[in-house]
C-alpha cells in the first residue's frame, strides 16, 4: 500500500518514519507548501518523490492513503478533498476544529466508503493500553470513579499556532482533544453528561522581553488560551479531569491516574522506562532541551503509540481490518471540547447538549479561583 504524507513539519516526520518502518506500506510522496522541506523529508525516509502539487497528489491513483499533518485549521478542508478524491485518510489531531466539521468528515467517509482515521496516539501507547486492561479488572481495582489526565508542555514552536484561523483554538483544543479522548477511553468510552471548564492565558502574546527573560524565545506566542482545566461528569457518576498546558517548563508531561473503589493505576508516559542519563550541559531530546538527570525516550515512536496507531490504519486500508479506535470517538471528544469552551464563556456547568446543569451553576468544579 502506498502512502502520501501532507505536511513536512515535525509530525510529518513522525508519520513518515512510521510508514518507512512498516512492512505493509511504502512512502510514495511528501507534499508541503515549502518544496525544500518536502524534498528533505522525502529524501530522509526514501519516499518516491516530493510532490509540489496538491491537485496532482489527489489525482495520483498510486496513492491509497493520505496522512494529513498540516495546521489544525486546514484539516477539515484537506481531509474532505482527499475523501472526495477517493483517498483513505488519517488526519492528525484534531480531526476538525468543531463538531460540525468532524461530523461532515464522518459522513463523507461513509458516503465514499473510505477509511477515515484520526491521530489519537495515546490510546495506542503500550503503557496506556496496559493501564486500561488493569482498570477493567473490577475485582482488583473496583469501580473507577475518578480519572485525571495531565498533558503539559512549554508550548508549540510552529508560527501557525499563533493564528486562530490556522490553529482553531489554543491548548484546550490542541492538547485537550488528546486528554478528553484518553480519559473517556480509559473508562471504556463512558458517556459524558456534563462539562465545565476554566481557560487561562498565562503568557502575554508577542512579548519579546518576556520571551528572553523566560528562555522561551523560540516558542510561538499565541493570543489564545495556553492553559485549561476541563471536568467531565459521566453517566455512571465517575468524574474525569483534563489538565492541559502550553506554559509548563521542564519537559513534556503526559500522565494519567485512574482511581477505583478498590485500587488505583498511575501512568507516566515519559518516565520509568528503564533508562536514565545525566548531563551538566544537557542535550536536545524529542521536545525540550534536557539537563541534569533525565529519562531519554527510547523507541519513542512505539512508546508514544504512533507506530501502533498508524499500523492499525494501514491494516484497515490494506486488509480491511476495522479500526480499533475510529472517528466516532473524535466526534464525541469534539462535542466535549465545544461544550468546554462554551462553559468557560458562560461561567457555568453545562450538559453535553448545551443546557445548564442547574440555576447559577458555575465552573468551580473545574478549578476556578
UniProtKB/TrEMBL annotation:
InterPro entries: Gfo/Idh/MocA-like_OxRdtase_N, Gfo/Idh/MocA_oxidrdct_glycsds, GFO_IDH_MocA-like_dom, NAD(P)-bd_dom_sf. The keyword Cytoplasm does not apply. Residues 1-117 form the Gfo/Idh/MocA-like oxidoreductase N-terminal domain. Residues 128-266 form the GFO/IDH/MocA-like oxidoreductase domain. This is Oxidoreductase. Keywords: Oxidoreductase. GO terms for molecular function: nucleotide binding; oxidoreductase activity. Pfam families: GFO_IDH_MocA, GFO_IDH_MocA_C3.
Amino acid at each position: 500500500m502506498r502512502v502520501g504524507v501532507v505536511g513536512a513539519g515535525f509530525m510529518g516526520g513522525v508519520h513518515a518514519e512510521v510508514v518507512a518502518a512498516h512492512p505493509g506500506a511504502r512512502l510514495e510522496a511528501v507534499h508541503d507548501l515549502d518544496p525544500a522541506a518536502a524534498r528533505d523529508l522525502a529524501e530522509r525516509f526514501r519516499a518516491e518523490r516530493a510532490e509540489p502539487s496538491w491537485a496532482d497528489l489527489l489525482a495520483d491513483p498510486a496513492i491509497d492513503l493520505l496522512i494529513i499533518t498540516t495546521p489544525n485549521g486546514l484539516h477539515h478542508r484537506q481531509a474532505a478533498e482527499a475523501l472526495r478524491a477517493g483517498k483513505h485518510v488519517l488526519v492528525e489531531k484534531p480531526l476538525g476544529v468543531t463538531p460540525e466539521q468532524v461530523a461532515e468528515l464522518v459522513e463523507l467517509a461513509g458516503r465514499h466508503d473510505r477509511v477515515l482515521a484520526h491521530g489519537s496516539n495515546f490510546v495506542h501507547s503500550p503503557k496506556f493500553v496496559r493501564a486500561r486492561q488493569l482498570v477493567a479488572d473490577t475485582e482488583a481495582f473496583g469501580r473507577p470513579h475518578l480519572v485525571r489526565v495531565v498533558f503539559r508542555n512549554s508550548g508549540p514552536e510552529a508560527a501557525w499556532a499563533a493564528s486562530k484561523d490556522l490553529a482553531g483554538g489554543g491548548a484546550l483544543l490542541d492538547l485537550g482533544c488528546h486528554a478528553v479522548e484518553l480519559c473517556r477511553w480509559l473508562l471504556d468510552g463512558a458517556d459524558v453528561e456534563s462539562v465545565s471548564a476554566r481557560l487561562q492565558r498565562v503568557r502575554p502574546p508577542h512579548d519579546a522581553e518576556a520571551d528572553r527573560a523566560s528562555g522561551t524565545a523560540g516558542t510561538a506566542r499565541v493570543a489564545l488560551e495556553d492553559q485549561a482545566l476541563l471536568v467531565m461528569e459521566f453517566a455512571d457518576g465517575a468524574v474525569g479531569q483534563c489538565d492541559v498546558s502550553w506554559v509548563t517548563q521542564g519537559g513534556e508531561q503526559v500522565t494519567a491516574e485512574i482511581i477505583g473503589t478498590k485500587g488505583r493505576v498511575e501512568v507516566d508516559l515519559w518516565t520509568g522506562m528503564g533508562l536514565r542519563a545525566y548531563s551538566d550541559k544537557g542535550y536536545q531530546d524529542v521536545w525540550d532541551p534536557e539537563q541534569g538527570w533525565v529519562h531519554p525516550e527510547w523507541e519513542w515512536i512505539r512508546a508514544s503509540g504512533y507506530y501502533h496507531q498508524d499500523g492499525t490504519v494501514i491494516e484497515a486500508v490494506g486488509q480491511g481490518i476495522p479500526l480499533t479506535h475510529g472517528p466516532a470517538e473524535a466526534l464525541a471528544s469534539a462535542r466535549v471540547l465545544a461544550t468546554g469552551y462554551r462553559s468557560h464563556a458562560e461561567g457555568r456547568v453545562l450538559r453535553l447538549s448545551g443546557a445548564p446543569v442547574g440555576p447559577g451553576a458555575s465552573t468551580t468544579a473545574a478549578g476556578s479561583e
